Amino acid sequence: MKGFLLSFRSEFYKTRKTLGFWGAIILPVLISSLAFVAVYTKSDNFVKMPPMGQWIQFSMIGLGSMGSLLLPIYTIFVAYSVNNVEHKADTWKTLFSLPISRWAVYSAKFLYALFLLFLCLTLFVVFNVAFGNLLSVVKPELKFNEYHIELLLIQVYYKLLLSALGILSIQFLLSLLWADFLKPMGLGFVATITGVILASNNWEYSYLFPYAHPMGAIKSMVKNNNGPARMLEIDIYTKDVYVSLIIAVVVFIAGYYIVQRKSVK
Amino acid sequence: MVIKTEGLSFSFGAQQVVKSLSLQVPAGSIYGFLGPNGAGKTTTIKMLLNLLKTGEGSIHIFGQELQSNRINILSQIGSLIEQPAIYHHLTGKENLMNRALLLQVSEQRVDEMLKLVQLTNAAGKKAGQYSLGMKQRLGIALALLSDPKLLILDEPTNGLDPNGIIEIRELLMRLVAGGKTVFISSHLLAEIEKMATHVGIINNGKLMFQGTIHDLQNINQPMIRIEVDNTVDAANFLKRNNFTVNDINHDHLYVPFISKQQIGDINTLLVQNGMTVFSINKHHKDLEQLFLDITQSN
Fold this sequence. Notes:
The complex is a heterodimer of chains A (about 260) and B (about 300). Chain A is an all-alpha fold and about 260 residues long. Chain A contains ten helices and no strands. In chain A, helix 2 (about 20-40) runs parallel beside helix 6 (about 100-140). The longest helix of chain A has about 40 residues, at about 50-90. The two termini of chain A are about 25 Å apart. Chain B has two domains: about 5-215, Rossmann fold (3-Layer(aba) Sandwich), CATH 3.40.50.300; about 220-295, Alpha-Beta Plaits. In chain B, the strands form three sheets. Chain B has a six-stranded mixed beta sheet, sandwiched between helices. In chain B, a hairpin with a 2-residue loop joins strand 1 (about 5-10) and strand 2 (about 15-20). In chain B, helix 4 (about 105-115) crosses helix 5. The two termini of chain B are about 30 Å apart. The interface of A and B includes residues 9, 90, 100 and 263 of A.
């Protein structure tokens, strides 16, 4: 456990000046600011909506872009980034000759990538709520202050996080095994595009394909209970989320056995 | 023995790169692990650090089997393998601080190491901007950070200028005087022979020689080196007089040394027969030549 904590801290220490880390902060800031500007400049379209509608329209700018493309691509990039630090510096050999178990080194790296994803999505929630409330301050005719969307947002972004875990585990392993940029990123992009096409065309088996999960998560988030609109409920544990979790666990464990048997170059 | 391997072998696919290696590295020694490029030195070192899975044979370090005592053994080893592994986007000091964090070593120790390898002034500079020599020194500081009992260094003087090489040599000799053991690989004997107490010579994955530096010098037969005006005539003349001539070049010829008296006899013989002798003396082949002889004999 100590080895794991030390490795995790070291992951933060060495990536804190890389784009992989700052991406987790810049991405939500950027998308939320764009959403803010969009609603601010087109506030006339929003004024007539009820407060919940305003929030949903506003939040869907971030959710839509994350669900369709940004989340899979950022996940692919994070998985690449945490491993590329070692490939570029040729430090796998020193990492694996430290008096720390291989399991601790491997799992700390994976969980750090997961942490970056978590950080990114948490900041999406935080900035989404903050910018929404800011909008009702700078444009009092907008009624963002009359509805609380926090819980719903947390649930949706949590669902997004779970739906990205399958991609993360696959991309993490690919980036760990391949030192070059093109193979894991290229494969990841092609798979993401495929996933978007499958999910947006409602292919019935798209829930089995991890790269289709973020988009599937957005599509399946609203519970179909035909209740009144005010009773919006988020369905977190849909079957695509379960598939994502199973893939994440299986690939993560398989990855460890591959790493353990692998000779370090 | 700090390092003891028995029948150590390793193959990359069908190609066997290390063949039944039995190393014996005594405590407190500077063990020079010599061999030409591609001889299997780095592969052996990676096996000693458990980075490559041993094909056959066993490795014991500090008397313990490596595989089953991996963490305990690695906590007492500092290593530098091939080119130093350095994060280029971090400064020199940050590279050390990161390792210090993993090894739970204090910042004070980091500063001491920076001073030791004379990087204090460049501590705040990005390591990517370091010269090759500075990177190598940082690599050595990283290896020394945990104050390990055993240092395993793979070609640590690569890219260093003569001054840097001398500094590293003196540093290693100080460390050994303080009770540490150093296992150092090189393809240059000249670099090692001034500090090594023990030597292992590897070629094509096979150990060709292992022993103390004196053992190595002892297998090096002394010769009489004769400088004359015409080496070919002199060689023919000596052969006619039942001397063995081992080697001959434009300036010198070499005859196996037996006694001082024999040097006088040869001198007299040559001079009396009208040849001009410029110099005649007892000569040891330098270790470089010996190294080449050993590695090329197979």
